[in-house]
Amino acid sequence: MSSEALKRASTLEDVARVAGVSRATVSRVINGVRNVDPAIQEAVRQAIARTGYVPNSAARSLVTRRTGALALVISGSDAPETPDHHVGGEIFADPFFGRVVSGVFTGLRPLDLHPVLMLADSAEARDKALTYLRQGNADGAMVVSTHSRDPLPAQLLAAGIPTVLFGRPPTPLSLSCVDLDNREGGRIAADHLTARGRHRVAAISGPLGVRAARDRLSGFREAMADHGIHQLPHVEGDFTREDGERAMTSLLRRYPDLDGVFAANDLMAQGALAVLADHRRRVPEDIAVIGFDDSSAATAGRPHLTTVRQPVEEMAAEMTRVLLDHLARPGRAATTVLFEPTLIERQSA
Amino acid sequence: MSSEALKRASTLEDVARVAGVSRATVSRVINGVRNVDPAIQEAVRQAIARTGYVPNSAARSLVTRRTGALALVISGSDAPETPDHHVGGEIFADPFFGRVVSGVFTGLRPLDLHPVLMLADSAEARDKALTYLRQGNADGAMVVSTHSRDPLPAQLLAAGIPTVLFGRPPTPLSLSCVDLDNREGGRIAADHLTARGRHRVAAISGPLGVRAARDRLSGFREAMADHGIHQLPHVEGDFTREDGERAMTSLLRRYPDLDGVFAANDLMAQGALAVLADHRRRVPEDIAVIGFDDSSAATAGRPHLTTVRQPVEEMAAEMTRVLLDHLARPGRAATTVLFEPTLIERQSA
DNA sequence: ACGCACTGGGAGAGCGCTCTCCCAGCGTGC
DNA sequence: GCACGCTGGGAGAGCGCTCTCCCAGTGCGT
């Protein structure tokens, strides 16, 4: 209204003065707490409009001890920071990341919350993230922790920060988490491959330091053994497409008569597909390929990937809901929500 | 230390008491402001360690008027929210998003800052984002605004929120921005295609409501005209792989003798490649394909895409630096940083 | 010996909000 | 007619921090 509007944001005090009431009443109207006379309510609303008042959230969180922010922590393995690579490049390039973000937004949309993104890809970054959280910059944390010996979940627990994990930690913690039944996923892949009559089968696993990767592999191995196949060529990959290419190349050289491959994620399966195309192997006729995740990579190339679906978006949304629930009702026991993998049958197997 | 550590976080006051100094002195030590006697400094540090003190950032920002958070706003076109789709699914699935995030982290890493992610994909979400920013939840905003008539940049300017844009707005605003010389990128694609002897060429553009898409197309058209080619079949896509497939299919039906295609991003080029494979067209022998971006999609399939590189990570990092600069020195004039596209020659053209 | 700049620490006033008290006014039951 | 609940508004005490003053002590020049 006046020229001072330019220099200084208006405060509750200003609104109260304009409306001719006390600060407390304005606060009541804004937060919808207790009964306030309709006429006064209207006067306050007009005063707010006239002053262009916007509540200051720092002041608010100082007293409420709530920030209205949730952290989404990507706690990867310690990434070597090469000069030509950008921070977290490989993590963010993975469709998995986008799916998690999408799911988190789905869970957050109903409320007025926004995630603050943190990358904890080194001991230093982890400490900073922890400090940041302890300073009360966020009300809680959602942690996508890949590496088994990641200390962050335990640290968050110790710091008393409400936390939900994407993926179960290797040793149980009293933290809530959402996860996929990865072992079952591996089994599904094995069953499908053998049902298709494949018996000379190999696996491209994820990094064995990652629990999900281990579970997928052991589920696959178990089911294969159930089908009488005990010899299982195996190459460890790092979940990137490039590594899928490398793994497939090495597999092809060592076991030229392979007729089936299970890759622990779609990106590596895509890499395998590319190498197979280079070698003029027909998929699925000569060699069947089955991926994992059902990410956008599955239908990016030709043939479309048959894959074990992991409903990442749903899982991330659920993780968000669980965290919100913990914030709403503190002191509730930790829960684990396990999702079931499903087979998505396309062309590659 | 004591049992009260459990119930109440320690404050400056506590540290001061333990160290036997005043609050002000503790604050000085923590913030490294003014000279403090080394002995006292040490005493304060020990007191901090003993009390497990962590500064409360809400209290701090209340007085400093700084939050230490920057917003990364993805202000897309109004997305229809279908029940089966997750929020922002397509945006987050695009490698572009991950590259932006990676670049932002690169720019933020040196400081202790984390981006808070906001999705402004509807008028309502935009209002919420604006409100959030006006409440002082972040010190500034980085906006990836795609759609031409997106009102958000102007609103942020009006609200006096330090803002940097990824991509120039259609009508100049006094906001800083980083962008690619998209027109030049289109030209590069045209020059390369004609240098390869392709004359029956078509374009798959991005949505013409997006300035970058328009610029790429007009640059391409201009250069083609320079080479004597004035007839240019054109299909508008929406930057997704699926739409690339759809566009290529339609192009192939209408112009079966095409020998070159320019797709305005790699995702659509990848879709085109898949359709060409389905039609048994050899790339690049029968038909050359050139993409745009040089994202991970470029080398995902076979053949590898020849593409016009947009250094998204560098651009996002620069956007972050520009914003930090504006925050450090308020009142500086808005700047525009223009990046040059480069040709990355691979197999598809 | 005195004044004076300079160094380093303390006191205390806020920053803008919430929330607990407290209290005036009013209807109700006996 | 009076005590009593009940409704709705105001006063004011913080939340935990920063930062401006202010002031004591020290070393220096003259």
Automatic annotation (TrEMBL), chains A, B:
UniProt KW DNA-binding keyword: yes
SMART domains reported for this sequence: HTH_LACI
GO molecular function, one term: DNA binding
SUPFAM superfamilies in UniProt: lambda repressor-like DNA-binding domains (SSF47413), Periplasmic binding protein-like I (SSF53822)
Keywords carried by this UniProt record: DNA-binding, Transcription, Transcription regulation
Signal peptide span: none
Keyword Transcription attached: yes
Start and end residues of each HTH lacI-type domain: 10-64
Name of the protein in its database record: LacI family DNA-binding transcriptional regulator
Annotated organism of origin: Kitasatospora saccharophila
Source organism phylogeny: Bacteria, Bacillati, Actinomycetota, Actinomycetes, Kitasatosporales
